């Protein structure tokens, strides 16, 4: 459903009403659909060691394990193997969006069941995976980017509303922030951690591996330097807390996302964290503003360089943020942002790339360049929300209701 | 088309407010579920500060602490036999794998903290005591654990499994 109310809305009468309005607001679930696609492979990576062991004839209870509760059901060996196999199939189906609701529910159920079979199975990255899968199970995230949507279109059925009440998205945002916040807070209140003792000592313990690594000698010396960790530990704590808090505000969100990617890459390189880095980076898509096709890119259809931008946006606009329209001949590439701000030329292209998930990390720093900042000018938004699109025709396949 | 419900940074004055499309029961159920999840998550984060197992507390890389253990089987006549020696067809490193417990005689990093590591070791002793039916001589297993909390000096702790009935 599309809300088009024009009358001045009432203020919420109470906090409860405000909360209810926030939770029930219908927003685009596109980011959760994209996360569903990305989490499928992550789930397969998570299940791989369990499946590999099972194929080799070993399962969790062939060695030390510790059930959480005596009543927790444990399956006969062959059935446990079948459940893992179903989990693999369900994860693939979930990622593809085939029978999405059932597949996602099955994936969540199996991953959660397997996790709670033993205290030894639980790690933070697996707990986070279960949380993400739980939210994906709740949210109707199969209406886009799915085989289900494709089949529906093939059969001529009307497209399902890609929007839904926002509360699953808010919950996942809370959980994602909680992961960074809890981790940062636990380090902040631990004097050994905040003072640099823990990180320095870990480096000392693996010094022989560092010496054998391709790192240059000066880098190894720096990493093993105790005063370096006095500063570095504080930076790590501040980084985690900045990500946890910064993701909530528009002014800091892009910086927080950019820092988070760097942070997870650094963790992946320096530590063994199972699927945590992949999962956490994938989950960053939930911080995109949950609306689609509310930015407009105007190109000169006669300009070959402009035309090259169209398939790039078509292929990489996973969050469906852009409409591409044909503009006047000889005009530069022009981006009209959702707030009506207009940029043109190279800054507009940089801005577009900064909003496409695969290129965002590379393009975001360019927005700090003075030229990019100067290039933005404010335009009075069109009350219909189609700022400036009266000049051009929407390019097929890149408008609302375009490719799923 | 621009979605007027999209700008989530400003709730007040929002045109979607008050559309009233959900039933009262659904609205209250949603509110309760979200509140429950938030409260449980915060409780689990808090629990991580005192619990050995820190499920959903997300305390990552908490310590640089290390540990090492000498584990013996204590037989009915008091003989102490290191578990590094196979017994009754059992091997410690086959019975206990993962979580760094397979080779306890070597000094390991307690990657989720010392409390967590000792809790796992304690449970592993009980597991071995309970799951070695061919062993008729062991009364209990005992681990003498040396721990180093971060850069602190060593501390020694002794952990015992439950007594095994029927040891002769």
List the helices and strands and how they pair.
The complex is a heterodimer of chains A (404) and B (168).
Chain A: H1 15-24, E1 26-28, H2 30-55, H3 77-96, H4 100-115, H5 124-138, H6 147-154, E2 163-165, H7 167-188, H8 191-194, H9 197-205, H10 207-212, H11 217-223, H12 226-246, H13 250-270, H14 276-283, E3 295-299, H15 304-316, E4 322-326, E5 334-336, E6 341-344, H16 346-354, H17 357-363, H18 370-374, E7 377-378, E8 393-394
Parallel strand pairs in A: 3-4
Antiparallel strand pairs in A: 1-2, 3-5, 4-8, 5-6, 6-7
Helix pairs in contact in A: 2-3, 2-5, 2-14, 3-4, 4-5, 5-7, 5-14, 7-12, 9-12, 12-13, 13-14, 16-17
Chain B: H1 24-47, E1 66-75, E2 80-82, H2 92-95, E3 108-109, H3 114-130, E4 138-148, E5 154-160
Antiparallel strand pairs in B: 1-2, 1-3, 1-4, 4-5
In short:
Chain A has 404 residues and is an alpha+beta fold. Chain A is 56% helix and 7% strand.
């Amino acid at each position: 459903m599309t809300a088009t109310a024009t009358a001045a809305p009432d203020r919420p009468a109470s906090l409860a009403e405000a909360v209810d309005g926030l939770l029930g607001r219908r927003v685009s679930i596109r980011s959760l659909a994209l996360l569903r696609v990305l989490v499928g492979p992550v789930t397969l990576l998570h299940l791989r060691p369990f499946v590999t062991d099972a194929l080799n004839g070993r399962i969790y209870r062939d060695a030390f394990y510790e059930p959480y509760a005596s009543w927790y059901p444990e399956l006969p060996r062959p059935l446990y193997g079948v459940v893992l196999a179903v989990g693999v199939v369900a994860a693939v189906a979930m990622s593809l969006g085939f029978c999405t609701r059932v597949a996602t529910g099955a994936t969540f159920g199996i991953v959660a069941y397997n996790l709670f079979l033993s205290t030894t199975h639980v790690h933070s990255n697996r707990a986070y995976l279960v949380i993400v899968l739980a939210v994906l199970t709740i949210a109707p995230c199969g209406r886009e980017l799915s085989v289900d949507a494709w089949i529906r279109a093939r059969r001529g059925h009307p497209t399902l509303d890609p929007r839904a009440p926002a509360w699953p998205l808010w919950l996942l945002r809370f959980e994602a922030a909680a992961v960074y916040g809890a981790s940062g807070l636990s380090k902040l209140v631990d004097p050994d951690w905040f003072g640099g003792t823990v990180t320095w000592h870990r480096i000392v313990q693996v010094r022989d591996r560092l010496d054998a690594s391709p790192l240059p000698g000066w880098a190894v010396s720096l990493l093993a330097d105790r005063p370096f960790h006095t500063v570095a530990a504080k930076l790590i704590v501040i980084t985690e807390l900045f990500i946890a808090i910064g993701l909530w505000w528009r002014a800091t969100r892009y910086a927080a996302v950019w820092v988070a990617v760097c942070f997870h890459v650094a963790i992946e390189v320096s530590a063994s964290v199972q699927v945590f880095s992949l999962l956490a980076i994938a989950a960053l898509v939930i911080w995109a503003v949950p609306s689609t096709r509310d930015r407009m890119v105007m190109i000169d259809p006669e300009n070959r360089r402009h035309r090259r931008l169209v398939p790039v946006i078509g292929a990489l606009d996973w969050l469906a943020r852009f409409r591409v329209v044909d503009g006047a001949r000889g005009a530069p590439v022009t981006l009209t942002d959702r707030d009506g701000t207009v940029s043109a030329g190279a800054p507009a292209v940089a801005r577009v790339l900064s909003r496409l998930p695969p290129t965002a990390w590379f393009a975001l720093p360019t927005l700090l360049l003075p030229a990019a900042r100067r290039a933005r000018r404010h335009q009075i938004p069109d009350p219909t929300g189609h700022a400036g699109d009266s000049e051009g025709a929407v390019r097929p396949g890149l408008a609302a209701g375009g490719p799923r | 088309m621009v979605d007027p419900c999209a700008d989530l940074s400003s709730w007040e004055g929002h045109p979607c407010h008050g559309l009233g499309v959900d039933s009262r029961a659904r609205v209250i159920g949603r509110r309760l579920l979200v509140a429950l999840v938030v409260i449980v998550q915060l409780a689990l984060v808090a629990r991580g500060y005192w619990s050995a197992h820190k499920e959903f507390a997300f305390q990552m890389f908490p310590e640089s602490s290390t540990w090492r253990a000498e584990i013996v089987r204590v037989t009915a006549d008091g003989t102490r036999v290191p578990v590094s020696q196979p017994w009754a067809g059992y091997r410690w490193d086959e019975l206990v794998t993962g979580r760094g417990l397979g080779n306890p005689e070597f000094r390991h990093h307690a990657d989720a903290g010392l409390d967590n590591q000792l809790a796992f070791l304690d449970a592993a002793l009980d597991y071995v005591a309970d799951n070695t039916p061919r062993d008729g001589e062991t009364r209990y297993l005992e681990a003498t654990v040396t721990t180093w909390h971060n850069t602190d000096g060593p501390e020694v702790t002794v952990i015992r499994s439950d007594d095994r009935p029927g040891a002769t």
